[in-house]
Design goal:
Blueprint lengths: L1 H10 L3 E2 L2 E2 L4 H20 L15 H6 L9 H9 L3 E4 L2 E4 L2 H29 L9 H33 L1 H17 L7 H5 L2 H21 L11 H13 L2 H5 L6 H31 L14 H20 L3 H20 L2 H8 L4 H15 L6 H7 L14 H20 L7 H15 L12 H27 L2 H16 L4 H5 L12 H15 L14
Antiparallel strand pairs: 1-2, 3-4
Helix pairs in contact: 1-2, 1-5, 4-5, 5-6, 7-9, 7-12, 9-13, 10-12, 12-13, 12-14, 12-21, 16-19, 16-20, 18-19, 18-20, 21-23
């Protein structure tokens, strides 16, 4: 009866030309039924399985698939013997099965076809009612024994080589783990007061740079969520630590004699620096946890969701750092621009709520205010930011370094401010300051409000309003140009501005940057809101790195 069921199972196999088809669900199930039938028929005929002691040396993952010395025929093993493709690509690297494995695959296919031939004879004899033409018990037993021995030989060699390939494929993450453990050894016993000394140690920095190098290579191989960049270096991390080191936490947590602009500038750069440092720590925490369950790491590293998520977060933060934290000039320019924007909320309080809510109107107002700040002081530090966002509008050979059209717009602004100043009523404020307030209020309120002009009498409004509205139409052109030249850069810049504006840094966060219990430093939850804000700006949701659950 077991042989009859096996013959029936063979008749139900799916074929693609002269090859067994197992790619579809139905084809895979039919092949699995056939292999199950072979096992049942072998046991019914009293055939002992070929020795499979080699399975004791399999890795934990494969011991789950082959838990004992029973046959455990699998469709994927048979499929591998059919394909006989010696090349396996993992993480962009090429691996080849040995000639010995290929030889075992051929012998398995020969034994498989020999068994099928006997089963076909059995089926034809049934159809012809010629039962004497059936293969004898001895012939069937011999075919099943040969198949099982050939299967065991191929399984042994094939799985052993797969385990070796997987170990090599995981080598990159293993190297990163080993380097992270080296950093832990160097950090052991370092108190808070000693962290800056450790970070300035040439030996420690060399080890840290080596670790970042491994992360960069991991990112290029496994990060399928973003670009997979391999050019984000340890200089970015070191610049972030430098920002934190220079930050006076006393000035950040309470008013002092230093200027508000100085404090705010430090806050803006500190937000980005902490983001860089925290993504670095998140990677380290991940590697620490994974080191205790390496058998669960998919050798195709891009299939490990937790790793990909942390690498994507790392690349995003460090990409921002490479542009806005690492270059000193850009760092200063960004901080100055943030402070200029914050100063405008004193004139236009509605701007603060736009930032807090990430209102869609904010992303119409923001480019207007940035361009307004630029034309007011084209030679100020914020020029560095504008140059990167619209480089086509700058001309090195020009006296002012601007293209003709942008230079004309700067002159238009100056002429307007001069004209408005002559119309301003007598007050404690300078006329230029009054004119600036009108332009800022108009940029924030839009063209549906007359409130920006309330400082003027009705008679003066009739003169000032058309001139301001004409300038605002030109300003709108430049605000659009600022956004559209490179939308990806603009979106990144917006996320940085929003993050630097909204996040409030407390002294305790800065003090805890270097505290560690197994490198579980306390910045992640603080930055969770900032990451969600960045996601809102860029149109996607970024989960917090502080999550306790590791998705390998």
């Amino acid at each position: 009866a077991a042989v009859e069921r096996l013959v029936t199972a063979q008749r139900q196999l799916h074929w693609d030309g002269d090859r067994i088809e197992v790619k579809t669900e139905a084809g895979y199930a039919a092949c699995g039924a056939m292999l199950g039938g072979i096992d049942m028929a072998s046991r019914a005929l009293g055939i002992e399985p070929a020795p499979r002691d080699y399975r004791s040396s399999f890795s934990a993952n494969y011991k789950v698939l082959f838990p004992d010395r029973a046959r455990h025929y699998r469709v994927d093993v048979l499929e591998a013997s059919v394909d006989q493709d010696p090349v396996i690509w993992v993480n962009g690297d090429k691996f080849e099965l040995s000639a010995e494995a290929a030889g075992h695959a051929q012998r398995l296919q020969h034994a498989w076809n020999s068994l099928r031939l006997q089963l076909d004879r059995w089926h034809r004899s049934n159809e012809a009612n010629d039962f004497e033409a059936r293969p004898s018990r001895k012939i069937l037993v011999r075919a099943l024994v040969q198949l099982d021995q050939a299967w065991a030989d191929f399984e042994h060699k094939y799985i052993t080589e797969l385990i070796d390939i997987e170990a090599k494929a995981r080598r990159l993450i293993v190297q990163a783990i080993e380097q992270e453990q080296q950093l832990q050894l160097m950090e052991k016993g370092v108190e808070e007061a000693g962290w800056y000394g450790l970070l300035s140690s040439g030996h420690y920095r060399a080890e840290q740079r080596s670790f970042v190098g491994f992360i960069s290579r991991l990112n290029s191989v496994a990060n399928i969520s973003r670009k997979g960049r391999d050019d984000l270096t340890a200089d970015i991390l070191e610049s972030a630590f430098e920002v934190v080191h220079r930050c006076d936490t006393t000035e950040l947590s309470r008013p002092s004699r230093s200027s508000g602009s100085s404090q705010g500038s430090r806050k803006a750069s500190l937000v980005l620096a902490l983001d860089i440092i925290d993504s670095y720590k998140a990677i380290r925490r991940y590697l620490q946890r994974v080191s205790r369950c390496m058998e669960r790491v998919d050798p195709h590293l891009c299939n490990n969701a937790g790793l990909v998520a942390r690498l994507a977060d790392w690349e995003e933060s460090w990409e921002v750092g490479a542009r806005y934290v690492l270059p000193m000039a850009m760092r200063s320019a960004l901080c100055e621009l943030v402070e200029q924007l914050k100063a405008t909320q004193l004139v236009a309080p509605a701007l603060a709520s736009m930032f807090q809510d990430c209102d869609v109107e904010l992303f119409m107002v923001l480019p207007r205010l940035i361009m307004l700040s630029f034309v007011a002081e084209p030679a100020a530090q914020c020029r560095e930011v504008i140059t990167t966002l619209m480089p086509h509008r700058f001309k090195a050979s020009a006296p002012d370094g601007l293209c003709e059209k942008l230079s004309a717009f700067v002159q238009e602004f100056r002429s307007l401010v001069q004209a408005m100043s002559s119309l301003c009523p007598v007050s404690k404020q300078l006329p230029e300051a009054v004119a600036w307030e009108v332009l800022v209020k108009r940029a924030v309120a839009g063209n549906n409000s007359g409130a920006p002009y309330s400082v003027f009498s009705s008679g003066v409004q009739a003169t000032a309003r058309p001139a301001v509205e004409g300038f605002m139409r030109d300003l709108e052109f430049w605000s659009v140009d600022l956004q559209r030249h490179c939308p990806e850069d603009w979106n990144q810049f917006c996320s940085v501005i929003v993050e630097a504006w909204v996040v409030r840094i407390k002294e305790s966060f800065v003090q805890n940057v270097f505290k560690s219990d197994g490198v579980h430093w306390n910045v992640g939850r603080f930055l969770a809101k900032a990451k969600d804000l960045r996601g809102a700006v860029q149109g996607h949701v970024v989960s917090s790195r502080a999550a306790d659950v590791i998705l390998l």
